[in-house]
Design goal:
seven-stranded mixed beta sheet; alpha/beta; 206 residues; 2 domains; single chain; Arc Repressor Mutant, subunit A
């Protein structure tokens, strides 16, 4: 069985990290797509194991959480009824936490955008942070239900709700683009206390 040298593996991974597609990487590096796919899977497994074992007792003062949208098989509205509740078909969200100061990603999870996955994600995040932290999320109401059980009183939690205006550009661009973000509102959601709207925090021209 042929084994890639360390230099070849580094070159392949370098191409992928720089944003090249898998097929473009195969052409640039002179290897098969199966080689690239296997190497990518092996790297993902190694990184997940490292993160799970090493990212503990982190001193994070400010952490931000969000959900990245994508889809598998088809968009949610086109998923066949018999596949509607199966993870991996339709809309998929990658829940991501990021240290606002160092850009470290202490926790992430892929799944549905609901309370079950939100609870699992925030619980894992809380288990990796040592000490009190400031947590900022978007306006997803799931966080109001899951932050307190995960962090207890050891968190300062607030929401930053984006304000969207009409999409700019021509008709074709508006068809495939969401509304343009024109501002945001801060909402204090301290654990054990009712939320308070702190007013518009950011305002950009539309």
């Amino acid at each position: 069985m042929n084994r890639l040298s360390l230099e070849d593996r580094a070159r392949i991974l370098g191409c992928l990290v720089e944003g090249n597609s898998m097929r473009a990487t195969t052409r640039m590096c002179g290897v098969s797509i199966n080689t690239v796919s296997k190497l990518l899977n092996d790297l993902g497994t190694a990184c997940a194991i490292y993160q799970n074992e090493v990212f503990k007792n982190l001193k994070i003062k400010r952490v931000q959480v969000d959900e990245i949208w994508t889809f598998c098989y088809s968009k949610q509205k086109n998923v066949p009824e018999e596949m509607d509740d199966i993870v991996g078909f339709g809309d998929v969200r990658t829940w991501v936490a990021i240290d606002a100061d160092t850009k470290l990603v202490p926790s992430w999870m892929t799944g549905k955008r609901n309370a079950e996955y939100g609870h699992a994600f925030v619980t894992d995040l809380a288990s990796r942070i040592d000490g009190r932290t400031q947590l900022t999320s978007d306006g997803l109401k799931v966080y109001l239900r899951v932050v307190e059980p995960a962090f207890g009183s050891d968190v300062d939690f607030g929401m930053l709700k984006k304000i969207y205006g009409p999409a700019g550009g021509n008709e074709q661009e508006r068809r495939y683009s969401g509304g343009q973000c024109c501002g945001a509102r801060r909402h204090l959601s301290g654990v054990g206390a009712p939320g308070r709207d702190l007013g518009q925090a950011v305002c950009a021209s539309v």
